[in-house]
Amino acid sequence: MKMHKLFICTLLMGLLLSCGEDISDPNQLFNLTIDNSKKSFKVEDALAVSVSAKRDKPVESVTYKLNGESVNFENNAFSLAGQRMGVHTLQADIKSGDNTYTLSKDFTITATQSPKLYTYTILESYPHDMNAYTQGLEFENDTLYESTGQRKKSSLRKTNYATGEVIENVKLQDQYFGEGLTILNDKIYQLTWQENTGFIYNLSNMEQTGTFVYGKSNEGWGLCNDGAAIYKSDGTQRIWTLNRNTLAEEEYIEIYTNKSKIDQVNELEWVEGKIYANIYQKDAIAIVNPSNGAVEGVINMKGLQEQVTQHSQLDVLNGIAYKGEPNILYVTGKNWDKLFKIEIKEK
């Protein structure tokens, strides 16, 4: 019986099929190798790549794609200049005889430099509704708009930031858990958490005029805008750019320091060309380059939560608002009884 099996295997090898292997699997026929492979690459690096045959299969030509887009390799190397942070997929289409075989490998790009470290000084504090589970915070001129969360308690609010007075309050239906908000072109956009639904309101009267859905991410966390595009976090390391007309998620950046990704990205604010992002469950705000996802700075917010009334429902820092004052932010948290005006300083 053993001799019979050996004969069969030998016969199949003669047909270029070794025992237990599948010649339709490109990985059995070719190697795609990142020759200078390492834990992570930087944008100033070049990717060195080679393709080799495992069997007597000719490699007639190879074309490459990066994240689905064709790229040109010179001397089997490709510059990573201009690429975004995060995980990328290199694909090789190998022409051999009448067939084309496709192989792929993933690699990661992280930020070139470690983020600058910042601290803060409290300049002012203002009353804030302790019952507000703050999820989104944004100024329109001197008026502060706030989105609050928790099912049966979620709302959209127009407030006087100096006194804490709630001028208008739109309550969400009980099934919705309110999340981030942003204001663009006289409209307010508000997310919900796991309901796959966003709301659109008129800024003038806070009347709801429409809804939108999340097509590519499961959850809604934070929103901000740069005056033209809207950005959305989803609780991962991704920040999405939304189509300004349909609100559909079109593309994303991934948030990385020089060492690792930053996930659970939460409430967002656009500040002088950068995205400021609360990191959920962290006393920190990340300063993110919106073009590539690199974390360029981190604001250490430790100690701020200790400045509010301590109670059983008190939760984490969440809420960043910018009013156009250089190096000045307005911040609060979930069920905090104070809103703080702080100055940001590099350590």
Descriptive labels:
single chain; Methylamine Dehydrogenase, Chain H; eight-stranded mixed β-sheet; mainly beta; 347 residues; Immunoglobulin-like
Task: Give an account of the 3D structure.
A hairpin with a 2-residue loop joins strand 9 (134-140) and strand 10. The strands form 6 sheets. This protein has an 8-stranded mixed β-sheet with strand order 21-22-23-24-8-27-26-25, with no helix packed on it. Strands 4-3-6-7 form a 4-stranded antiparallel β-sheet, with no helix packed on it. Strands 9-10-11-12 form a 4-stranded antiparallel β-sheet, with no helix packed on it. By secondary structure, it is mainly beta. The protein has 2 domains: 24-109, Immunoglobulins (Immunoglobulin-like, Sandwich), CATH 2.60.40.10; 116-346, 7 Propeller (Methylamine Dehydrogenase, Chain H), CATH 2.130.10.10. Residues 6-21 have low confidence and may be disordered. The protein is built from 1 helix and 27 strands.
